[in-house]
Write a structure and sequence with these properties.
Blueprint lengths: L1 H18 L6 H9 L7 E2 L18 E2 L39 E6 L14 E5 L105 E2 L21 E2 L1
Parallel strand pairs: 1-2, 3-4, 5-6
Length: 258
């Protein structure tokens, strides 16, 4: 019994140490950012920055490549143009953050809060399942499959069960992405590329899909009630009776279904 309590205590102590293992605190990060300039960005590379409040900071002169930011608060921060490849971003709060033109490759962002975030022009390959992207700006984003790395298997974006309600995805590319049961209600997908995407069970109620390319997509139980389908392309859909909500969709007569 004494041995049992000894090891229990040791494990608890180790857990407490690991839980407080961040390499830097907010003040340290602010100091590094304050002295950074373009030729010498703030060294935050591969740093453990878990569970920190980094909200409202300007990271444009920071190097966050490969950093561990799990559960950190980066709301209202400016990370525009950064390379966040191989960083760990699960459950990060990016609400209202500026992530425009960022590169996020090989990253897990599952469960993150990206409400109202600016992701316009960004490049993303990784996992963003169950993330909240409601009212986010993904216009002109390039989140399509990386066809140059097929020796490593198909590398693509995964947004299964993600919340994209009210988001701006106009002119974005999601080629071959996984978006099963994603919520696009009220979203703007004007001229978006969704070629070969798995949209099984997705919700497009009230969304603007005008000019969007849904060729070769999987659409089992996908709901288009009230969606604008003006010029939407559904190439490869042989039986449109399988598509839910078409009876209330707008401009269905101009949709290309073959």
């Amino acid at each position: 019994m004494k041995i049992h309590f000894y090891w229990t205590g040791m494990l608890a102590a180790l857990f407490c140490v690991s839980a407080a293992a961040a390499d830097l605190n907010r003040s340290d990060v602010e100091k590094r950012l304050a002295t950074a300039y373009k030729a010498h960005p703030a060294d935050l590379r591969r740093k453990d920055l878990t569970d920190l409040d980094l909200s409202g900071l300007d990271f444009k002169l920071g190097d966050l490549w490969g950093s561990d930011l799990r559960r950190s608060n980066l709301s209202n921060s400016d990370l525009s143009g950064l390379n966040l490849d191989l960083s760990v971003l699960s459950k990060v709060d990016f609400s209202n953050a500026n992530l425009s033109n960022t590169s996020i490759f090989g990253v897990h962002v599952g469960g993150a809060n990206l409400t109202n975030a600016n992701l316009s022009g960004s490049r993303f390959i990784g996992v963003m399942d169950r993330a909240n992207l409601s009212h986010a700006d993904l216009s002109h984003a390039v989140w399509g499959a990386d066809m140059k790395n097929q020796s490593m298997g198909l590398m693509r974006a995964s947004l299964n069960n993600a919340n994209l309600s009210g988001a701006n995805l106009s002119y974005a590319n999601f080629d071959r992405a996984l978006m099963r049961y994603a919520n696009f209600s009220g979203a703007n997908l004007h001229n978006a590329v969704l070629f070969g995407v798995d949209l099984s069970g997705a919700n497009f109620t009230g969304a603007d899909l005008s000019g969007a390319d849904l060729s070769g997509t999987r659409l089992e139980e996908t709901d288009f009630a009230g969606a604008d389908l003006a010029g939407t392309r559904f190439a490869g859909i042989k039986d449109k009776s399988k598509l839910k909500g078409l009876s209330s969709a707008k401009h269905l007569d101009t949709a290309i279904i073959d």
